[in-house]
Amino acid sequence: MINLPEILGFAGIGVVVIAYAPQIIHLRKEHCSAGISLKAYSLWCVSSALFLIHAVMIRDIVFSVVQLINLVAIIDITLLVKRYGGYVCLRHLQAQQGRTATRRTFSGARRYGG
Ligand SMILES: [Zn+2]
User: Fold this and answer.
1) Would the pTM of this model clear 0.85, i.e. be above it?
2) Ligand 1 center to residue 89 CA distance, Å?
């Protein structure tokens, strides 16, 4: 019998899947790894593995499933970034160039402004 806390937990799992989907789809479709830190994902991978072990040991089904999904998504993203590392899609490249131009303008204004 499923109870309210488990319903809320599985709803949370759905949100996790929805949160990962755009990143994974963008990586697979555009081969773009803009803004992804492999160091951060490596730490999240270790963290998720530890949480998964903990969740299995305390026999928490919701926490076990969410950590398993986290682990699979993190490993998938990490492998895709390693495969496509350095590639940036046109949209992200233009965004990066826009930020760089803004920074140059701003630092130039400070340098020459006073
Ligand atoms: Zn991109």
Assistant:
1) no
2) 4
